[in-house]
Amino acid sequence: MRVAIVGATGAVGHELLRVLESSTLKFGELQLYASPRSAGVKLPFGGQELTVQATPEGAINADLILASAGGSISKEKAPAWVAGGAVVIDNSSAFRYEPDVPLVVPEVNGEAALRHKGIIANPNCTTAVAVVAVAPLHREFGVRRMIVSTYQATSGAGQKGIKELLDQTRVVLGGGEAGAEVFAHPIPFNVIPHIDAFQENGYTKEEMKVVWETRKILGDDSLKISCTAVRIPTLRTHSEAITLELERPATPEQARKLLGRAAGVEVRDDPGAKLYPMPLTASGKYDVEVGRIRSSLVFEGGLDLFVAGDQLLKGAALNAVQIAEYLQEQGALKGRVAG
Ligand code: A2P
């Protein structure tokens, strides 16, 4: 089986290479693509150096394409990749809301991936992190309403987001005044309640992605969801405060027990020992940390929790590779399987 990464030089591309190195996915060849600017760049993979090529105009000679070069590239090129016979797992938002494109988090709705027509969408990073924690609670107790406040890392805006935080922090520490290009305002020592474009209803597109995508992944359009998405000056891992109103009452103990058995979750919840989810501990980890689980003071029988998940991993690269692993396990990926 031949695998290609489009956007291999980006923040998510970098993680895709690392995740593939330790993945159970069996493949014989890995091709790397990015913009023409990166043609010839060498990236390490499995003890070798692979050369990045400019993304071609038409089809790519691969069985599986992991795309992470942004929505406009995916929109423009994915149809040709599919026509050329590849299965595309797309990290952008280009196809997520199309009815015949499955939006997949394998622990939650893996079987939806089997119904693809060439393209499978990887969810928005904030949504992927949230649903890993919320889906088991939804299955057991029935979520009726969900209120989310996010604390999102600068790498959510790619390599350029990471660079702006580091560069502008140095400017401030040097006594200068920080500027902003990637973010709407200077990010050092600030929090910015503005991610993606404002919509007519006053919410941002990032906030509405959480609403639309959580409903699609959980397969429940009746879910009432509201989100406030905030950029904070961290490098990686998105954290989220989540309040749930439930159809059937849950105690924090029941929730802890249930989440302790859930795939993709690490319960980190011992406040007395200063143990709770944080970017510091969740970064680089495959599991999403869940803690601060307590009874809601607003919704009787409901829950408040705090989650922290490495959005470059579970919110992007890891989830994409897990979708591919799932398809291969189900015998649903074409190509010659090596080794
Ligand atoms: P490049 O590094 O050559 O610009 P990030 O999300 O970190 O900003 O990364 C975006 C990824 O998308 C990078 O790998 C980038 O490559 C790639 N990319 C940007 N523009 C194009 C393009 N026109 N064709 C193919 N890949 C692109």
What does this structure look like?
There is one protein chain. With 339 residues, the chain is an alpha/beta fold. The protein has two domains: 3-123 and 316-329, Rossmann fold, CATH 3.40.50; 127-311, 2-Layer Sandwich (Dihydrodipicolinate Reductase, domain 2), CATH 3.30.360.10. Helices cover 31% and strands 22% of the residues. It has helices at 11-21, 71-83, 106-109, 125-141, 159-173, 205-218, 252-260, 279-282, 313-329; strands spanning 2-6, 29-34, 42-45, 48-54, 64-67, 87-90, 119-121, 143-151, 224-228, 238-246, 265-267, 288-295, 303-309. α3 (106-109) links the parallel β6 (87-90) and β7 (119-121). α1 crosses α9 (313-329), α4 crosses α6 and α4 (125-141) crosses α9 (313-329). The protein is globular and about 55 Å long. 47% of the residues are buried. The mean pLDDT is 97. The structure holds adenosine-2'-5'-diphosphate. Adenosine-2'-5'-diphosphate binds next to α1 and α5. Adenosine-2'-5'-diphosphate (A2P) binds next to α1 and α5.
Give the secondary structure arrangement, pairings included.
Layout: E1 2-6, H1 11-21, E2 29-34, E3 42-45, E4 48-54, E5 64-67, H2 71-83, E6 87-90, H3 106-109, E7 119-121, H4 125-141, E8 143-151, H5 159-173, H6 205-218, E9 224-228, E10 238-246, H7 252-260, E11 265-267, H8 279-282, E12 288-295, E13 303-309, H9 313-329
Parallel strand pairs: 1-2, 1-5, 2-4, 5-6, 6-7, 8-9, 11-12
Antiparallel strand pairs: 3-4, 8-10, 10-13, 12-13
Helix pairs in contact: 1-9, 4-6, 4-9
This protein binds adenosine-2'-5'-diphosphate.
